[in-house]
Specification:
Elements: H1 3-18, H2 20-35, H3 50-61, H4 65-69, H5 140-143, H6 146-156, H7 163-173, H8 178-186, H9 191-202, H10 211-221, H11 227-239, H12 246-258, H13 262-274, H14 281-293, H15 297-309, H16 316-328, H17 332-341, H18 351-363, H19 367-381, H20 387-399, H21 403-415, H22 422-434, H23 438-450, H24 457-469, H25 473-485, H26 492-504, H27 508-516, H28 527-539, H29 543-555, H30 562-574, H31 578-590, H32 597-609, H33 613-625, H34 632-644, H35 648-660, H36 667-680, H37 683-696, H38 702-712, H39 716-721, H40 723-726, H41 732-747, H42 751-763, H43 770-782, H44 786-798
Helix pairs in contact: 1-2, 6-7, 6-8, 8-10, 10-11, 10-12, 11-12, 12-13, 12-14, 13-14, 14-15, 14-16, 15-16, 16-17, 16-18, 17-18, 18-19, 18-20, 20-21, 20-22, 21-22, 22-23, 22-24, 23-24, 24-25, 24-26, 25-26, 26-27, 26-28, 27-28, 28-29, 30-31, 30-32, 31-32, 32-33, 32-34, 33-34, 34-35, 34-36, 35-37, ...
Domain Pentatricopeptide repeat-containing protein-mitochondrial: 210-306
PPR repeats: 245-279, 280-314, 315-349, 350-385, 386-420, 421-455, 456-490, 491-525, 526-560, 561-595, 596-630, 631-665, 666-696, 734-768
InterPro entries: Mito_RNA-Proc/Resp, PPR_rpt, TPR-like_helical_dom_sf, TPR_mt
Length: 807
């Protein structure tokens, strides 16, 4: 019998005999592990992990838990990052990580204050200044190891996840070496799935992550916006007693930066200080990179200066970050000056320094400046252009649509004896095709064949796409045949480019036929292929065929996104095919597609447009059953339809229901409610409802809209009663509202009432419209109200809007 199995059952028997209450808790604990399945297919984690928090709480409350964790763990000290006797685990947990709670999402200005740089003052000048940024470099055989591939296969079986699959994965997990666990994490296309696997593995019995796994996870998260996940991984390292190197904090900084939260990114420096981790050059360079990435060049320069004041000598990486920052704000002269000043600072520029400025010149199509900089690179820095130099220039110029200039550098590189590979040629071909210069692109392909640099599928696909862009579909088809003749089999991207071109040129049915015959042509469509054909059929009004494509797409394991689903529903609703739209939505929902609130709202709006309110209300109830909670837009659509059909009481009830659910009315909601109530003449009910709507969210123009809408419906008496509510603020919007009421009184032949409105405006320091006032003055004179007319003009003279001569 396996030793681990024997130990487990022996512990159970001892606990059951001697400590029954502990035995119950022990069993409950183990059952919670078996029940907490790792299910990445349910919903991708949104940077949250409930099980993680529960595990941490259990760890704090159970001192002996660490002993159980160490059972059966293989010695991994040869893979340790730090070479200690504990395999990288530090038994002392003296690090202070209370500062984690301070790093939260903040509102307001996201710009860091200079106070965040004070942490540099704590830098220890005596410590060695290094920038040994640690990274995980995995070999190809580690990524292709059978155990790694099997774990990845099990993770991909998300839709059919069950207890057996989890048991198999748990068994395989204990056989993985730490670097193989890193390979599993790096093999995931979705970083959220990798994070969830990381959490799941950490919860398993008789397994613990090696420190290398934590750093691998942090490195993966640093390339995403999942900053909260990175923060939790770092917190978990502290609670597990793992040494947190400065690089771990640097990964968290970069993740915050990618999420657009610069303030919290810089606060990580303070967190390092509180945790007792010494600053090093790598973290300082990361801080400069974060500031430059957020377009805070001035802050980056001040941080750079503060580094030198406290004794941190910047290296070429720091200078390159600043050069990049200068180029981002189009201050290339300052970037060139920085390169010139670097030798005097005992830091010679490298090729990256020059490449950064060359990239800026390439974007601006300043080829002469690029050549001058290449000469400067040779003369002043003794750096000679090589293959990488020309490849960089060719790709950047091609990327920004400067194919002719890229071709010049390609020819120059070949003249100097460098051999540009097919990737460089393909970049130029693609640039020519995007510009519509198909003949030039074909010429490069022919030249490649003559030089023995056989074009690959990427090159040919670029030409196919180019022909499709200019509408030469027959030549695009011939190019696919040409690929076969030269031993280059078209792939899915090649056919997708052709099908997209067919759909773009109104031949969606032909694209549909090619999609159906894909198996005969030995190519496999992907989600992009199906989406292109579906959208082409939809735009041509062939909605039934488009729905069939979506069904086929789902049967192949590809799911349309909510935007694509919404386009189909909207098109069906526009043609009045409400039943088909509802069936389509139900099929997508049943098949597990990512149906969202917008899709339901579009269908509800379609029913409202057809005045089928019962179906709309029924669908609103179905949303709750499907766990898709309606938003304010959904409610507004039905409220408007109910008001349109005179069912104002039901509209009121629905509005109150929306408010009780905590949904804030949108500006459209206010306009809709005001329009329908004013149309029905229910002003008192409207005012009561508005008071409740305004409790949750203020709308400064709500009463302005009511007065203007009442004026449009001719209910001037009610509008006049509300004028005092508008004149409390006396803004420009209020003046426009008063002018509208004044004009309405004039159109109704009531100049004296209009005059009273003008007087009330003057009393609130609002100036009536001069043309309307002139018209009002004449009407007052015609009706024998000369005193009022003179008083009106006198008010304008007093405020400097009329001269006494005009009076």
């Amino acid at each position: 019998m396996h030793s681990g199995y024997f130990s487990y059952h022996r512990i159970q028997r001892i606990l059951a005999r001697r400590c029954p209450f502990v035995y119950i808790r022990f069993n409950a604990y183990l059952s919670s592990f078996s029940e907490s399945n790792f299910n990445p297919g349910s919903h991708p984690v949104r940077d949250s992990n409930v099980s993680f928090v529960e595990r941490d709480h259990f760890d704090e409350g159970n001192v002996d838990f660490g002993k159980f964790r160490e059972m059966g763990v293989e010695d991994s000290r040869e893979l340790s990052l730090f070479g200690d006797n504990n395999g990288g685990y530090q038994r002392n947990r003296s690090l202070n990580f209370d500062g984690f709670d301070e790093i939260e999402e903040e509102e307001g200005d996201n710009c860091p204050a200079d106070d965040d740089f004070v942490v540099l003052n704590s830098y220890n000048v005596q410590c060695e200044q290094t920038e040994d940024v640690w990274r995980i470099e995995l070999e190809e055989d580690e990524l292709r190891h059978p155990l790694v591939r099997e774990i990845c296969r099990l993770i991909q079986c998300r839709s059919a996840w069950n207890a057996k699959l989890e048991r198999d994965m748990r068994h395989l997990l204990r056989s993985l070496k730490p670097r193989q666990v890193c390979a599993v994490l790096l093999s995931q296309d979705d970083e959220r799935v990798a994070l969830q696997f990381f959490y799941w593995a950490d919860r398993q019995w008789r397994y613990r992550h090696n420190p290398i796994v934590y750093y691998a996870m942090l490195e993966i998260l640093s390339k995403t916006k999942l900053c909260q996940g990175a923060k939790r991984v770092l917190r978990l390292m502290a609670r597990r007693g793992i040494e947190c190197r400065p690089e771990a904090f640097g990964y968290l900084m970069v993740s915050y930066s990618r999420a657009g939260n610069l303030r919290n990114a810089m606060k990580v420096l303070t967190l390092m200080q509180k945790a007792g981790v010494e600053l090093n050059l790598a973290v300082c360079n990361t801080a400069i990179h974060v500031l430059v990435r957020a377009n805070k060049l001035e802050k980056a320069l001040r941080f750079f200066e503060r580094m030198q004041i406290v004794g941190i000598i910047p290296n070429v990486v720091a200078y390159n970050c600043l050069i990049k920052g200068y180029c981002n704000v189009n201050q290339v002269e300052n970037a060139l000056q920085l390169i010139s000043d670097m030798p005097s600072k005992n830091c010679s520029p490298d090729k990256v320094s020059y490449y950064t400025i060359m990239s800026f010149f390439c974007k601006e199509k300043q080829v002469k400046e690029v050549r001058d900089l290449m000469e400067k690179m040779v003369k002043e820095s003794n750096l000679f252009p090589d293959m990488v130099t020309y490849d960089t220039l060719i790709h950047i110029l091609s990327k920004h649509g400067h194919a002719d200039e890229a071709l010049e550098f390609l020819q120059e590189a070949e003249a100097r004896g460098f051999q540009i590979d097919k990737v460089g040629h393909s970049a130029i071909v693609h640039a020519y095709c995007k510009q519509g210069k198909i003949d030039e692109a074909k010429g490069i392909v022919s030249e490649m064949l003559s030089k023995g640099c056989n074009p690959d599928v990427v090159t040919y696909t670029a030409v196919v796409d180019g022909f499709c862009r200019v509408g030469k579909l027959e030549q695009a088809k011939k190019m696919l045949q040409h690929m076969y003749k030269h031993g280059c089999k078209p792939n899915t991207v090649s056919y997708t480019a052709l099908l997209t071109g067919l759909c773009r040129n109104g031949s969606s049915l032909q694209a549909r036929e090619m999609l159906t015959g894909s198996e005969e042509e030995f190519w496999t469509p992907n989600a992009i292929t199906y989406s292109a054909v579906m959208n082409g059929l939809r735009k041509e009004g062939k909605l039934s065929e488009a729905c069939d494509v979506v069904k086929e797409m789902i049967s192949k394991g590809f799911f349309p996104n909510p935007v694509e689903i919404n386009l189909i529903i909207e098109s069906l609703c526009r043609e009045g095919k409400m039943n088909e739209a509802k069936r389509f939505l139900e099929e997508c929902l049943n098949k597990g597609c990512a149906v969202n609130v917008v899709n339901f709202t579009t269908l509800i709006h379609g029913y409202c447009q057809k005045d089928d309110l019962e179906a709309a209300l029924s669908l609103l109830d179905d949303m709750y059953l499907s766990n898709k909670h309606p938003d304010a837009v959904t409610y507004t659509a039905i409220i408007d339809a109910l008001g349109k059909n005179g069912r104002i009481e039901e509209a009121t009830d629905l509005t109150m229901k929306m408010l009780k659910k905590g949904l804030l009315p949108t500006p459209v909601t206010y306009r809709t409610v005001i329009h329908r109530y004013c149309q029905m003449g229910k002003v008192e009910d409207l005012l009561k409802l508005l008071e409740k709507m305004l409790l949750g969210q203020k709308c400064k123009t709500a009463y302005n809209q009511v007065i203007e809408k009442l004026c449009s419906f001719g209910n001037l008496q009610e509008a006049d009663k509300l004028l005092s509510r508008v004149l409390k603020t006396a803004s420009r919007n209020d003046a426009n509202t008063c002018n509208m009421l004044l004009e309405s009184y004039l159109s109704k032949g009531m100049p004296l009432s209009a005059y009273k409105v003008a007087c009330r405006m003057f009393n609130r320091n609002l100036i009536p419209n001069l043309k309307l006032s002139d018209k009002l003055s004449k009407r007052l004179m015609l009706e024998g109200k000369s005193a009022e007319a003179d008083n009106l003009m006198l008010r304008f003279v007093e405020r400097g809007h009329l001269s006494p001569q005009c009076e």
